[in-house]
Write a structure and sequence with these properties.
By secondary structure, the protein is an alpha/beta fold. Helix content is about 35%, strand content about 25%.
Length: about 425
């Protein structure tokens, strides 16, 4: 029987195409470690691997199965840079910090591609990504961003697309213009996660599924992670739960909020060769981003619906098919083979959150839908910081990430109202 994640709705095409996931044992009794890691997604597993290869004693726990969270269920797009355009960050942070953050993201991209190649992880990398505008007025901004990337950020892989080229490369008349990025691409995220868990376990890290953290406390310079199956006592702790922080740690919980995102997979589009003929990934300019791409076997993987509560819709595929038809009318009756969802961790300014939240306890998350590259690399940066041979993680720690307003009681309702307002703006 196929495993159904208890924390995310639907059976994903990723799960169906990846085969059976290896199982890892739950924690069995109390233990000690140099570093304890809470969360078995990209960030936590990368940190575990890179620490263990340096001889650091590591214990990692995951509350459910590896791959149940966002790392195994996301849209699979790598992107380029941070979530914001470099010129937007430059206006806010200045050129030097914006350039440093861009270079970090390029390091993250190369790290992911190199890691998969070195360790024989077939993550089904496919090149190319397009960012397209649903509003005509954005054309000048897209053209300027492409020019700035080439001239100020030494990134020559992005080119502006006018309406005709955008329509040809997408196979849709829905968008007005865009940029094409040949220096990035998209992956099968669950295959990457499965391979990463294998590599982390092989490095000597002790990794455990089905072991939720129930509390964090400190005493005598040590940090204790409480679980139903024993206590982990460690010198340092990494919290890498992202959207699934719950009530575990209040500083993170105030700044990283979960939203639901949903994806559908169609049958292979053999009869529709004009739909993304180059098989690039696509993301549009809506606040509630519509993101879609071709799989290796020619399916359209389409994400676009968000929900700002923990509730999941009864029928994901109907809404996703409706959004597909807005862009590709010929696909209005296309068969959906899979539909699924998951929780994405967002921050108020849509920038990553990295902070020492307690003495010796670091929390990293809130990648706001741009975490495939950055979350993997953040785990490595954390390990590098523990080893004392890199301060690159400080670039994220220096970002100002305020708490969501409203306190614990009103935070979610206010977020719902705010994001609904921005979603309505997408229509005009």
């Amino acid at each position: 029987m196929a495993w159904q994640s208890p924390i995310a709705p639907g059976l994903s095409w990723y799960q169906a195409s990846a085969g059976e996931r290896p199982e890892y044992p739950a924690l069995d009794g109390s233990t000690t470690a140099d570093v304890a890691i809470v969360g078995g997604g990209y960030t936590g597993l990368q940190a575990a691997y890179h620490l263990a290869t340096r001889g650091v004693s590591v214990v990692l726990i995951e509350g459910h199965r590896f791959g149940d969270g966002a790392s195994g269920r996301n849209g699979g797009q790598l992107g380029t840079g941070q979530r914001a355009w470099p010129d937007e960050l430059e206006d806010e942070l200045g050129y030097e910090r914006s350039k440093a953050l861009f270079d970090m993201a390029e390091n993250a991209k190369q790290h992911l591609l190199g890691f998969a190649d070195t360790h024989g992880i077939d993550m089904e990398y496919m090149p190319g990504q397009m960012n397209v505008s649903h509003k005509k007025s954005y054309g000048d901004d897209y053209r300027r961003s492409a020019e700035i990337l080439a001239t100020r950020y030494n990134y020559p892989h992005v080119s502006f697309m006018d309406q005709a080229e955008t329509a040809e490369r997408l196979g849709s008349q829905r968008y007005f213009c865009g940029v094409r990025d040949t220096g990035t691409g998209h992956i099968h995220p669950l295959k990457m996660l499965i391979g990463l868990a294998r590599v982390a376990a092989g490095s000597g890290a002790r990794i455990h599924e089905m072991t939720p953290a129930t509390a964090i406390r400190q005493n005598g310079g040590k940090t204790m992670i409480e679980t139903p199956r024993g206590t982990i006592t460690a010198d340092k702790v990494l919290i890498a739960t992202n959207a699934y922080i719950g009530n575990l740690e209040p500083v993170t919980a105030a700044r990283v909020m979960p939203i639901r995102s949903f994806i559908g997979a169609t049958v292979p589009l053999d009869k529709f060769p004009d739909v993304i003929p180059g098989s690039e990934a696509v993301a549009d300019s809506r606040f509630v981003v519509r993101y879609f791409r071709k799989s290796q076997d020619g399916r359209l993987l389409f994400g676009g619906r968000e929900a700002y509560t923990s509730d999941s819709p009864r029928d994901i595929s109907t809404h996703i098919r409706r959004q597909i038809a807005e862009i590709y009318p010929s696909l209005k009756d296309i068969e959906m083979t899979h539909a699924w969802g998951g929780s994405v961790g967002i921050t108020l300014p849509r920038k990553p959150f990295a902070r020492e939240v307690m003495p010796g306890v670091t929390s990293i998350g809130g990648f706001s839908g741009h975490g495939v590259m950055l979350s993997n690399y953040s785990g490595k940066m954390y390990a590098d910081s523990i080893a004392g041979n890199s301060s690159e993680l400080d670039l994220l720690k220096q970002l100002k990430i305020p708490p969501f307003p409203g306190g614990a009681r009103f935070r979610s309702p206010l977020l719902f109202l705010a994001l609904t307002w921005y979603a309505l703006r997408d229509r005009f």
